[in-house]
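Task: sequence design from structure.
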């Protein structure tokens, strides 16, 4: 009985996949014969504006395959980045953005491709296990966070006057704070393991790469603890003075 149930489920899945593929083929076939690039692009744009990002991608992909050098194809490449992003295909959005940047290095819309690539990394959601277990994401290796920070940083460096720059700056502040918090988590772990030099180096890295983060005080405290334990009194006292100055500056700003 169990084997029969599994077989029926597999058969249903195969049939469903075939239907989906057939529907996609029907949609492609609807505009393929004799249609010019502008018509295909408009169909894709209409689908995207209607929130049908899956169909929009089918149109844009067909346009790119049939008319790779058309003027509207370049715009379609940008629209595909957005459509992938909105369709929750983050990796595809990143790949499409990188392809546009690589193929159109002098295009004035590269800032948009960079911004969307940063967003795709920024919006990487916790997986279901992390949600169920309520994992503290500040303790997770921040691969996507670092990527997003780096991409937004490149956007601001290359296009400081871009209309996407203000939002990128705000997101970088959030990312900076998360990265600094993670570095301190690692430094604290080294303290518990007795790896005091490694803890100092990690805290220094946080101070040097993420200045202004709220975690600055904690980084200095970790360094003081490690220096004291290692008997480096002079360095510990120097760091205490920096910590006192930092706290004074924070108090004055409030």
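Answer:
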């Amino acid at each position: 009985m169990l084997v029969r149930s599994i077989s029926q489920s597999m058969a249903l899945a195969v049939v469903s996949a075939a239907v989906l593929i057939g529907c996609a083929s029907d949609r492609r076939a609807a505009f393929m014969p004799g249609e010019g690039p502008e018509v295909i692009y408009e169909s894709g744009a209409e689908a995207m504006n209607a929130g049908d990002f899956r169909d929009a991608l089918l149109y844009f992909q067909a346009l790119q395959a049939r008319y790779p050098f058309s003027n509207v194809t370049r715009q379609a490449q940008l629209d595909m980045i957005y459509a992938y992003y909105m369709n929750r295909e983050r990796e595809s959005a990143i790949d499409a953005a990188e392809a546009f940047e690589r193929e159109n290095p002098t295009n004035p819309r590269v800032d948009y491709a960079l911004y969307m690539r940063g967003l795709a990394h920024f919006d990487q959601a916790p997986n279901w296990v992390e949600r169920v277990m309520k994992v503290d994401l500040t303790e997770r290796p921040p691969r996507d966070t670092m990527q997003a920070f780096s991409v937004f940083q490149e956007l601001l460096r290359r296009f400081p006057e871009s209309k996407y720059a203000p939002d990128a700056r705000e997101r970088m502040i959030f990312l900076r704070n998360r990265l600094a918090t993670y570095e301190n988590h690692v430094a604290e772990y080294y303290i518990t393991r007795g790896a005091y030099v490694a803890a100092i180096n990690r805290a220094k890295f946080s101070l040097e790469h993420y200045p202004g983060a709220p975690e600055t005080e904690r980084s200095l405290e970790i360094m003081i603890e490690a220096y004291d334990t290692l008997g480096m009194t002079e360095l510990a006292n120097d760091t205490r003075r920096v910590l006192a100055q930092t706290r004074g500056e924070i108090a004055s700003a409030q």
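Residues 31-87 form one domain.
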